[in-house]
Amino acid sequence: MSSTRKRASPALVCNASAVTVTPARSKGASKFGIESFYCNPGIEGAHEKGSVEGQIGWFRRNHLVPVPKVASLAELNAMVEQWDRDDDARRILQRALTVGEMFAVERPLLAPLPEEDFETGLVSSLRVTRYGQVSVRTIHYSVPVRLIGRMVRVVLHASELVVYENHREVARHERLIAKGGSRLELDHYLESLLRKPGALPGATALDQARSAGKFTPVHDAWWQAACKAHGDAAGTRALIAVLLLHRHMPHEHVVAGIATALRAGALTAERSPWKHASGASPTRL
To answer: Does the reported pTM lie above 0.85?
Structure first.
């Protein structure tokens, strides 16, 4: 269970008459019109749980044994959502209706969901460090360098972290679990690197972009050619100008353009064949 969900759980469940509920749990219950009650412990309350734990056990045995191998929590969540959809076609024992059909009968009897979304994340206000990062539970996440020294709103979810300037989203990262780690997006530092291009080769954000497959061997080949033609500083600035195109164009279009430019010997952003192209789905590094 994620720490976010733990905070929304009862702080004490050892005596049904003396349960302390956290403010987050109370807020969620009020939002969705939920009235909480707790089973009696031991044999006296065994009959109160119904088939809930049995169905949880069935799901675990059929989908989580052996433990799935995934690259991220987001991938695991997508798998769980698909298993839930597939479960609609399952028939429990000899019942006449499937799970999905039984829910279709029950749905009209349920109260409608609130029109506004309920914020389940942990919200905090943090100041951006001089490194263009916010520190959340000893883990560092990057934000655009223009926000250095300013206060931002950070929302920590079970699987991701989102940063807002006022009401506008400025950064979104997959949440890290290991303490002392960092999640840095190269795009957040490009304006700073234009002024100090010598910092790019050893940048941690560049290493992470390479590991994620965002900074490809094609980028590296064009960079090397540009440095050879114009010198290290000018060649690196030319690369950064190309990387800025990722804000307006799909990643695959930029990579294809870089490959074409490399073959044509076009080693400046101004002369590149993709300079005036457009795309609907930009992908930042």
So the answer is: no
